[in-house]
Write a structure and sequence with these properties.
The chain is α/β, with parallel strands linked by helices. It has 13 helices and 16 strands. Strand 8 and strand 9 form a beta hairpin. It starts with 6 loop residues before the first helix and ends in a 13-residue tail after the last helix. Bound molecules: adenosine-5'-triphosphate. It holds the Pfam family ParA.
């Protein structure tokens, strides 16, 4: 009969694993409950998102240590980007927006659901704003699936300047920050609502954005609590909702619009992505998804329609190769469309209020 692992044997073994700060894992107080099911051991290490990279080696060592115990059939250790709920809430309350006095407008690019091309649109709109002569930053707040490192082919890590301040990484003249720069792609991370907010707070507050006309925030897809809180806390001057023409996506897009309405963020407009298909051989346009749905919906809802972007190989290829079409083929129809959409967004912002100052919390 093989030995059965117990919590005690697992904990005893984990005492030999050290955190980057030199503490043993048990004393460090970052261990979750240990679950043992049919000889398989599961637990999490709660770490600040910025330290996730440093903790990846610790996670692996913890897994290997537990797997080596007699009777253990398997071990799964995940990093959870965690902070004490109260702490995260306090951080969020301490007003997202502190320290970004040089940023004139923060806008969100959002979608009611994933996979509609939100990040591709956010990147190309940012570069469109830049091509129109503005100073622009792009914050990839899509902590669940950060795409900016891939879309802009950035593999370097941001530099730490001064006390806990990160320098944004500049690419094609665009200043960017992404949780993907800080965490290895394969690092398993579980994000909890309050943590998403505090990660966003840090990326807004603790990054040396400098003087910007617009900071574009690529939001996590969906309309859950985390998105709602972010929309509420990030002092947004406006939001752009990306949708595909299919009905389902439009239902989701409507949820997105509703979310911004609830938190009094003006919707600058809807972008219809993958709207129609242009045959690369003959140039014929086919409305495979019933193009025009978003425009009709926008009209019905009294929201500006910012434009329709075709489903096109060139957009996908350039996007996935880290050379967005606005910079790699500025003379193309697509690049022109993105610049026009960017211009409409900027015009819509002209009337909007600039970023509010910090909300001071007295405890
Ligand atoms: N107009 C377009 N034409 C062709 N391909 C596109 C277009 N827009 C986006 N894509 C492609 O669709 C895929 C999904 O796009 P993207 O990652 O921007 O979506 P997303 O909505 O941000 O997704 P997620 O919800 O996963 O973050 C990518 O491969 C991208 O290159």
């Amino acid at each position: 009969m093989p030995d059965t692992p117990t919590k005690e044997t697992v904990l005893a073994a984990l005492k030999s694993v050290r955190t980057p700060g030199g503490l043993d894992l048990v004393s460090a107080g970052i261990l979750s409950e240990i679950a043992i099911v049919k000889g398989k051991v599961y637990f999490a290490l709660s770490v600040p998102p910025r330290d996730a990279r440093a903790y990846e080696a610790v996670r692996r060592e913890a897994e290997e240590t537990v797997r080596a115990l007699p009777g253990v059939a398997g071990a799964t250790v995940v990093l959870t980007a965690d902070a004490k709920e109260g702490e995260a809430a306090k951080q969020a309350d301490a007003a997202i927006g502190r320290g970004i006095g040089g940023v004139r407008h923060i806008i969100a690019v959002a979608s009611g659901k994933g996979g509609v091309g939100k990040s591709t649109t956010a990147v190309n709109i940012s570069l469109g704003l830049l091509a129109n002569g503005l100073k622009v930053g792009l914050l990839d707040a899509d902590v669940y699936g950060p795409s900016v490192p891939r879309l802009l082919a950035i593999s370097e890590k941001p530099e730490l300047i001064g006390d806990n301040i990160l320098a944004p990484i500049e690419k094609f003249g665009l200043k960017t920050m992404s949780i993907g720069f800080l965490v290895e792609e394969e690092t398993p991370m579980i994000w909890r609502g309050p943590m998403v907010i505090s990660a966003l707070t840090q990326m807004l507050n603790d990054v040396a954005w400098g003087e910007l006309d617009v900071l574009v925030v690529d939001m996590p897809p969906g309309t859950g609590d985390a998105q709602l809180t972010m929309a509420q806390k990030a002092s947004l001057a406006g939001a752009v909702v990306v949708s595909t023409p299919q009905d389902l996506a439009l239902i989701d897009a409507r949820k997105g619009l509703e979310m911004f309405k609830r938190v009094n963020v003006p919707v600058l407009g809807i972008v219809e992505n993958m709207s129609f298909f242009v045959c690369p051989k003959c140039g014929e346009q086919s409305d495979i998804f019933g193009h025009g749905g978003a425009e009709n919906e926008a009209r019905k809802l009294g929201v500006p329609f910012l434009g329709a972007l075709p489903l096109h190989m060139a957009v996908r290829e350039t996007s996935d190769a880290g050379r967005p079409i606005v910079v790699s083929d500025p003379g193309s129809t697509h690049a022109k469309l993105y610049r026009e959409i960017a211009a409409s967004i900027w015009n819509g912002l002209s009337g909007a209020a600039t970023v509010k100052g910090p909300k001071i919390v007295i405890e």
